[in-house]
Hints:
The structure is a homodimer of 353-residue chains. Chain A is α/β, with parallel strands linked by helices and 353 residues long. Chain A has helices spanning 41-47, 64-73, 91-101, 104-107, 123-140, 183-192, 206-216, 218-229, 234-239, 246-249, 272-278, 337-346, and strands at 8-12, 58-63, 82-85, 110-115, 119-120, 143-148, 159-162, 172-178, 195-205, 257-262, 266-267, 287-289, 292-295, 301-304, 308-312, 317-321, 325-330. In chain A, strand 2 (58-63), helix 2 (64-73) and strand 3 form a beta-alpha-beta unit. In chain A, helix 3 (91-101) packs across helix 7 (206-216), helix 3 (91-101) crosses helix 8 (218-229) and helix 7 crosses helix 8. The N and C termini of chain A lie far apart (49 Å). At the A-B interface, strand 15, strand 16, strand 17 and helix 12 of A face strand 15, strand 16, strand 17 and helix 12 of B.
Amino acid sequence: VAVSSPLQALILAGGSGTRFWPLSRRLRPKQLLALEGGESLLRQTVERLQPLVAPESVWICTTEALAEAVRRDLPEVPPEQILAEPSGRNTAPALGWAVRSMPEAVRRGPIAVLPADHRVATPEAFRATLAAAADIAAGSGRIMTLGVAPHRPETGYGYLEIAPEAGVGGVRDVVRFIEKPDAERATAYAASGAHLWNAGIFVFRGDVFLAELARHAPDVAAGLEAVAAEPGRLAELYAALPSISVDYAVMEKLDSLGTLPLDCGWSDLGSWEALAEVLPADEDGNAVRGPAVAVDATDNLLVADQGTIAVLGVSGLVVVRTGDTVLVCPKERSQDVRRILAELESRGRGDLL
Amino acid sequence: VAVSSPLQALILAGGSGTRFWPLSRRLRPKQLLALEGGESLLRQTVERLQPLVAPESVWICTTEALAEAVRRDLPEVPPEQILAEPSGRNTAPALGWAVRSMPEAVRRGPIAVLPADHRVATPEAFRATLAAAADIAAGSGRIMTLGVAPHRPETGYGYLEIAPEAGVGGVRDVVRFIEKPDAERATAYAASGAHLWNAGIFVFRGDVFLAELARHAPDVAAGLEAVAAEPGRLAELYAALPSISVDYAVMEKLDSLGTLPLDCGWSDLGSWEALAEVLPADEDGNAVRGPAVAVDATDNLLVADQGTIAVLGVSGLVVVRTGDTVLVCPKERSQDVRRILAELESRGRGDLL
């Protein structure tokens, strides 16, 4: 079955995560950071789609606060396709609103929904799997997700349990969604062959998705209908939408969600530690971004956004220096960086958040 | 025996130590830093002398590069008594040159020679011992030194071996100077009752010192004579002086050097670790200067000269943030900070030194 209209990409870029503090800030969240190369994660997300998805077929759903920065970052994406949510209501309203913003003809074709802040080591493999899923979604109308074959017992991701038998084109049925597991269950999942990491990537025909949204989340669909009917009251009506994730509102409830396993060196870059794992390191195991000197120091992540970092006799640390702050913590504690933000907030240092 | 003329203080402030990098720089060495209170170590050195030594009786020997900063730091000291060496030739030439700069009448009285960058916890005790030594030096003409009773087996200091019996006024004869010992000998010295730390503090009559300099270091004395004879060639002739310490050139060779033990909470503040030991700490053992947030972190020294420091889950570290740099090292490695400077120098980053 051939793809009837060009694949669209809908990139969700409204996140305001704090895990890359102090580099990430409220107005410069993770997706706008160049954590690895010289380009932001958002820009890398757009570029790895080419030539499968042209910039004219890219749609971005972000927030009003970030829209201007997103436009500057992606000048080749039509500005009217950079959609700014007036408030954050989680992914079900965001997806519904964005798909409804597309012209009817576009909406009848396949749309890939992609997070803006993930990493892919081999874009060719990523595009091949995405194209295959788009073919299936366009041809059969089925909603597809791409799951990542787990290569370690990760407790930081949600999982998809999949059916033992592959169908036509290698598609596996998703049996159920599983929340982040404990270490014991994660170990079992990683070895089972029946579980994939939920990467938050979906491919569907827009009209199919809206129909499923209306069926499984009628309150969201009705709210979006009200938003569309009164554009002058957008902020007010959008804020009244239920705040709910698309997994919970729609995907878990589908009669038949299909998945194709994705093998492309995927990471969600969920922490400084995760970044350290993918950055190239020197002979002492130090991964360095920006000016840094390391003496008798091994296995550190040193990120100097401004100024120079000098470390002596330390191992396994994250050191991140910005113009106003420096963070120092062991790699394995980098998921807890939000505790520093809470402390700063409580001390009235919102200027650093 | 009464002091015949007011005690003069000659403060040696030409040091360019690197142990407090990155806070200390070539043009802002340790003695000009406010490491503890709000005032520089130099200024604290002057203030702790009062009322024993009035500012009008203070003399500073520093370098040309630092002279302006010293004048700004000590506006109450007569500017003509802030002497700027054209080049560094160690302490024997510096002391001889500075004493010769004093008027004849002043030179016949007692002079206390003091480093500019040490710490004293109890200034009253310090002044009392210094005054007693000045009385002896003025009355008997003897050269005196103040030695610190060791309270730990310190390998970072030189020692004075002293005679077992105290003489008049509690004076002990110095038997010999001992270089920095290894740990075993330091342990023996700390327990012996016959050893004091060499704090580099001397009290003498200026004319007596110059006579001893002429006797034991005739090349230095002759060079200083030449400097005095041709003021127009100061830079050239000063640079030609032998570079030698006053301990080695004069003090070790005296027939009779006396000492009074000093018990005043003295520290030479020789490293970030030494500073951490004297700064007040919070309930988690963190000593903090400037804005800092510590979460699950204990026994760290956090010095933020510019910006904010945030640490999470680390212990026993030194973190020092300046406008252009951050240093991270374990406290016990802080003596090795010069290795970072060597590395920066080799990379052409002299701007950070």
